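Go through the following before class.
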Amino acid sequence: MRRANSPPMPGFIATGGKLSAAMAPPFQPSHRATGKRQTMNSMHKKVRRTENAIACELSDEIAILDLERGLYFGLNDVGAVVWNKLSAPASVRELCEAVSAEFDVSADACQPDIEALLDSLRDASLVEDVDQA
């Protein structure tokens, strides 16, 4: 089990075109085609990393480089657990269970934060929804 006093929310913020690990609300959505922010409306919808980014671990955190745009991003230790779990398609429920296994938080309590992180990662084109047929 990781530190119980670790930040409860995985997050990152935009600063001058760069993102850094921080405990802050996710950056503003892009409001693409529909004009509305996409949200995870299902605990079972699968998400995966896109192929346009590479990442490396820095202590308990993750640094991500978007190869298409040349931007880099940072995730704190909680966000790193989520990113690592997304090496294969995973649902919000699976991500919440992974976080609750590592940190002193219940899967239900971390769900809104995981959904917010996924929305931010989706807005940054670092993750995408997986079509399930």
Observations:
- The first strand starts at residue 12 and ends at 15.
- The chain has one domain: 12-29+42-129.
- Helices lie at 77-85, 92-102, 107-123.
- The chain is about 30% helix and 25% strand.
